[in-house]
Amino acid sequence: MTRLLFTGTGRCGTGYVAAALNACGVRCGHEQVYTLQTALRDTPPVWGHWQAESSWLAAPRLWNSEVKALHLVRHPLAYVRSALEIGLFHDARRSAYTDAIYRHMPAIERWKDPANRALAMWAWWNGCIGAYTTDYYRIEDFGLATLAEVLHSIGHGRSDLPAIWAKVANDPGARNLKTAEKPQRLESVATSLFQPKLLDEARKLSAHYGYAGW
Q1: Can you give the CATH number for the domain in which 16 is found?
Q2: Does the global pTM surpass 0.85?
Q3: How many domains does the chain have?
Q4: What is the mean pLDDT of the chain?
Q5: Longest alpha-carbon distance in the chain
């Protein structure tokens, strides 16, 4: 079976995709192969028994990846809202995860406020991934047909896929992810928070992924 790697910005559905693949019998790690250690110390990924991996921490190492990489993207405002909700870019809540981000993209930390840091993360991290792979999936559109396509690409067919997907799609985590994409949630993030040049950059990139009009 061909090994598969999903990566994105984080807060973009990597855990959701890992759960879907595991439900289909594909041993898929979620930050089990590309871990904090690989991001912080440049230690090599160890695949072991894993057939697939879904980890935003893989992005800085795509230039040296020997597996098929697929890009997960999420609406920029949904990403920013999620990052702000967990305090990812607040100095008072700095963690090993933000250390990993700033290690590879120190310019993100130079923004003084969490909202611009989050939007810069969305634009620049996705831009980095896009330089190494042209295959991307919008998490908002990830459904039964997408899962079937992914499984087919690695030679893993399932006749009971509709039943499996029904369970995955009804998982509380999946429902929460889909609820977060509703327009009223996206509109709760005011674009006036962002520096105009950065906002323009993010809008141009997001249009490439089909996110227009925000």
Answers
A1: 3.40.50
A2: yes
A3: 1
A4: 93
A5: 51
